[in-house]
Hints:
Elements: H1 9-19, H2 33-50, E1 59-63, E2 65-66, E3 77-80, E4 92-94, E5 107-111, E6 117-121, E7 127-131, H3 141-160, H4 163-174, H5 184-193, H6 199-211
Antiparallel strand pairs: 1-7, 2-3, 3-6, 4-7, 5-6
Helix pairs in contact: 1-3, 2-3, 3-4, 3-5, 4-5
Amino acid sequence: LYMASGDTDVKICNKALLLLGSSAITSFSDGTPQASACSTLYPDIKKTTLGMYPWSFTVAKAQLTRQTATPNNEWTYQFTLPNDMLNGVPRAVRTSSSAGSAIYKNWEIAQASDGTSVLMTESLTIYIDYQKAIGETLMPHYFVNLLGYQMAWHLAEVITDQTTKSQYWKEIALGTVAENLRGGFFRQACNIDAGGQTPSVVGDYLLTDIRA
């Protein structure tokens, strides 16, 4: 539905640096203080921003692989979760890949004996809807703009040594405390993205928003 921006991590960070009146970087390893700050902050900010909302361009489907190991608890089977899954929890679990198949609720995310997170259940077959980590080239323009504002917020004090600029860009990105940090450009980006979502996905998010 929405065109991908074709951006890179460096381009996104340079947009944030431009907003702060700072020099651009050529790479995360170009030796400048700006590059060092971006390389440290960007991966976490990107992952956090991707996980803040069920963005239409991150939603994916997968059939999980059942492991040979069995849980040492009340469950009978455990399944490997996708290694590119955001937030660690599926958005929906089903036992069939058929269109319109019912949501399956008899499962939980728990720790396997080797310390990894797995999905434990009684079903022999599991399909999930989940949010997938994606690269910058696949991000639409509205999300790239939000990510740029997020970076401007987190870079502001480091680059300018001014907490007022940090607060300014925080409100540009997410709005005020009174808006529960669900305002600003984040709200606008969500509204744009909602055009690519099913009503149930958008409704689930709005309910979460109200509870928050």
